[in-house]
């Protein structure tokens, strides 16, 4: 099964972050989520380029 494209994953992450921000999440919570999730998306891209 083929995974979601990098663009789709980034869009989902940004949408989630936006929704959490609107729900009252702190900037620190948002930054932690981005720090955890962005490398996963980037790493997938590196593997697909090989």
TrEMBL record:
It comes from the Bacteria. This is Uncharacterized protein.
């Amino acid at each position: 099964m083929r995974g979601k494209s990098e663009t789709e994953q980034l869009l989902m992450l940004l949408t989630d972050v936006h929704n959490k921000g609107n729900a009252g999440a702190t900037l620190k919570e948002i930054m932690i989520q981005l720090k955890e999730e962005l490398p996963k998306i980037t790493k997938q891209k590196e593997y697909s380029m090989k």
